[in-house]
Amino acid sequence: MKKTLTVLLAALFVGSAAIAATSETIPPKDDRGILTLRTSANKEIAPDVADVTIFIQTKDNKSLQKAVDDNKDIANKIQAALKGMINPAKGDYLKTENYSASPDYSYSSSGKQTIKGYTVSNNIRINTRELEKVGAMIDKSFELGATSLGSLTFSVSSYTAVCNDLISLASKNAYNQASAAVKASNGVILSIRQMDISCDGNSAITPRNNFSSNMLMKSAAMEMAAPQQDKYDTVIEQGYLRVNAYVNASYYVK
After folding, report:
1. Is the N or C terminus of the chain more exposed, i.e. has fewer CB atoms within 10 Å?
2. Number of DSSP helices (H) and strands (E) in the chain, helices first
3. 29-46+157-254 belongs to which homologous superfamily?
4. Is the pTM of this model over 0.70?
5. pLDDT tens by residue, 180-235
6. From the centroid of its chain, how far is CA 222?
7. Where are the domains of the chain?
């Protein structure tokens, strides 16, 4: 019995010594350093998609049906013309949005409400990759009765892919810069501690161009005054979109 107890105690002693020796050879986590840095990458790209909203408004003092018919007639003419200018094979399309028809009211001094006419509104949205035709599309729409330009934006269809490429580049730059800094200090990178990424730059840009039926009337008057001049389509400059990617990275180093 005493022999067995002696062997057991010896075994426990050896085991505890081994544990103590092992714990002394593992460096504590606090011995690791942390290196944090921020990098970026950017690129300017030309838009390849235009989104145009043409506004059509018609009024009649007596008949809602007359205002409806007038609006429909203008919209049909514009759509027929635009269908010959877009390219559905590239994904171009036309879409009717925000159609409304409502009475217009006037109010007496006593607050009495009276219908004074009717207004019908209709938007035609043009989404096209035929950027060189955007000016002609707008001009044609006004020529056929459009009353104003609701919106005009240019966008990049590959925006997400561009962001991903820039984030990849910024991440590589972060690692290369961290490696250079640690190497100069005779250290090594152990692992990534944390990485935050972001990408900005609006996916659409809006040129500062305002069009209305009044501008069309002025343009027509100028053409009548100088008929010898050639007619040019309105020129729309889409510009460039700048995309920026940022990486905030921190590494465990030793």
Report:
1. N
2. 5, 8
3. Protein of unknown function (DUF541), domain 1 (3.30.110.170)
4. no
5. 999 999 999 999 999 999 998 765 666 655 455 444 444 444 444 444 444 556 77
6. 38
7. 29-46+157-254, 49-155
